Amino acid sequence: MEHQQQLVWQQWQVPVHYRRSSRARHLRITIGQQAVRVSMPPGVSLQEAQAFVQRKEAWIGQHWSRNQHQAPPRLSGLTDGMTVMLWAEPVSLVWQPATEARVILARHQQQLHAWVPAAWSDAVAQQALQTALKRYLSQTLLDALHGWLPRYSQPYALHPTGMRVRLMRSRWGSCGVRGTLNFNRHLVHAPPAVAEYVLVHELAHLRHRNHGPRFWQLVAEMDPLYGEHRHWLRSHGQGLGLKIGDLLL
Ligand SMILES: [Zn+2]
């Protein structure tokens, strides 16, 4: 059963879909790109769910409006001054004319400087910058993962045989049969603690290749706030990398 309602918050008209879920244990609000979904566990009435939504109105409105700003604007390319989210912080991409025949990216506080050869045509520059940016984002994430790894590998005796970053369509991470961990490049747009949770999650799979209670217990030991981090991915995940990710597939 599904019930729909329109929530009005400031200039926004927010479609809210209420859905029964036998698996939900609590009322859960998920802010999507098209609608807000409310999962109702058994025993919770529609009226209770609506009252809950009412109380959370401002919170929903804020997240919704933020998500709408992040909606894919269908950019034609990586433009000078555009915003790239790095570790959940907006960073401006600033083009600089380079004399060397290659693209160099370097971060200076809230700016990401892209040194692009001035002599190149727009098309060539665009292609090279996209390639360089993908590499930069992957490397930034990989460096962070390697930085966090010792916090868990030694104390918990969890040693991956390797770590790789690539673009994944539907997962944040995976654990290969030979102990190689893969991570979604889009995690570099999330808060660092969220990316670190994904590392913890995949590390825990080295011991438990399932999502059973012992798996979650190990995750909780390594990341006591894992519930929040999972929730963050659920509610913000689909917006991650949209702006830039659309261009960098
Ligand atoms: Zn898993």
From TrEMBL:
InterPro entries: UTP_pyrophosphatase-like (IPR053136), YgjP-like_metallopeptidase (IPR002725). CDD domains: M48_yhfN_like. This is YgjP-like metallopeptidase domain-containing protein. Pfam families: YgjP-like. Residues 25-236 form the YgjP-like metallopeptidase domain.
